Amino acid sequence: MAGIVTNPKRRNSEAAPRHLTEPAAVRFILIGIALLFLGLIVLLPMITVIVEAFRKGWAAYIEALSDPDALAALRLTLVTALIAVPLNTIFGLCAAWAITKFKFRGKNLLVTLIDLPFAVSPVISGLIYILLFGAQGFFGPWLQDHGIKIVFATPGIVLATMFVTFPFVARELIPLMETQGVQDEEAAVSLGARGWRVFRKVTLPNIKWGLLYGMILCNARAMGEFGAVSVVSGHIRGETNTLPLHIEILYNEYQFSASFAVSSLLMLLAVLTLLIKSLLENRMSRSHEA
């Protein structure tokens, strides 16, 4: 035992985490590149929005936000999100439950269709609704005869928003529920629980943080959606303009200060969404560790 010579440098190198074995210069360069990228792509635009929003002073900022068209755009944005997010949550729960808990024909097709909005341009999805529900569309004449207005109205905006946001809840829940398996549900059924009680007492507590996380992502996309909504809205001021569309109109009319003021409001909603998302991620990591 006394004749064995150990190499302390080798032992320390083997014990050190892999990412700490890189030279300090390499680590500093990689961290610097990441911070520079974030600064140019994320922080600098955010700072620019704030500076431009208050360029003409606090009074001009408040005036831009209190404008009737801006308030109407804010109301429509919130109403659209309040309708689209719960409906997509119900769809996401049902789709994730069916895909992860049952075996049936067409399961792979269902998963593929859930991913469809990620592959289709939002502008194309908006155009599809025009071709279906527009005045010259497939259902257009029938809708006109019955006094129902879909496109260039709130229903069309909600439909377009739902299309581009419906994968988020399902895509968050499917991997989570696949990882959890069906053992807990089978145990509950063996003890006499059925249907809704199994879902409420067993499944929902296990997926609650993932469900909230998916809802937050869905809400963020719903409030910031531009392409699909732009096609079906008709850009009617005070009626069919959401916040992104209202910002575009203000900017095109050279009302730069007002456009950045409204942009700061949308950015504030996005930051609040990210904060809630971070809190949910922490809760999810803690629950997994427990």
Descriptive keywords:
single chain, 290 residues, mainly alpha, 78% helix
What would you say about this model in short?
The protein is an all-alpha fold and 290 residues long. Helix content is 78%, strand content 0%.
So how many helices? 15
The main sheet comes to:
none
Choose one word for the global shape: globular
**N-to-C order of helices and strands:** HHHHHHHHHHHHHHH
Share of helix, binned: over 70%
Low-confidence stretches: 1-5, 8-14
Structural class category:
mainly alpha
What number is the mean pLDDT? 85
The number of E-state strands comes to 0
Task: Using the CA coordinates, give the radius of gyration.
Answer: 25 Å
Strand content of the residues, in percent?
A: under 5%
Question: First CA to last CA: what distance?
Answer: 43 Å
